[in-house]
Amino acid sequence: MPPASGKRSRALSHWPRRVLAWVCGLILLLLMTLTVVDVIGRYLFNSPLIGATELTEVLLVSVIFIGLPAVCMDDEHVTVDLVTSQMPDWIQPFRKALLALISATIFGVISWRLWVYGSQIYAYNGVTNSLRIPVGPVAWLCSVCAGVAVILTLYVAARDLRRALRT
């Protein structure tokens, strides 16, 4: 029996989160394995893993930017509400919408600059020192993820503001 349309749409909305969670989880598992192998090689065999630092840098920046759309999708940014918790309830949706616009603008600038930076690095064939990993495509990946974060931040803000205005 096919699932009800409500369940189907809910399941479809969860698949991007699951994909992002799996990708980030695999990258973190790879980071952990890389670190363990490097430490064992360094301290037990006096032979560190060649390029471990470069791989760690590339994987770390990847997991951060690939995870950014998931954070924006769930509106789970780190927040401090020392002052805002004292504000009246009616102002909260507007405050959140304004902050979302500011966040989206910042993510947009980050995306734009990463794209420009990635293009410059790609133009002169910039690679890492040991493993010769091309850096331009990594910057482009980060730029695209930041661009997706812009779209999701604006979508979540509009959705939440619309819900708040209905009540």
From TrEMBL:
GO cellular component terms listed in the entry, alphabetical order: plasma membrane
InterPro entries reported for this sequence: DctQ, TRAP_DctQ
Record keywords: Cell inner membrane, Cell membrane, Membrane, Transmembrane, Transmembrane helix, Transport
A GO molecular-function annotation: transmembrane transporter activity
Bilayer topology: Multi-pass membrane protein
Role according to the record: Part of the tripartite ATP-independent periplasmic (TRAP) transport system.
Membership in a protein family: Belongs to the TRAP transporter small permease family.
Name this polypeptide is given: TRAP transporter small permease protein
Organism from which the protein derives: Pseudooceanicola spongiae
Lineage: Bacteria, Pseudomonadati, Pseudomonadota, Alphaproteobacteria, Rhodobacterales
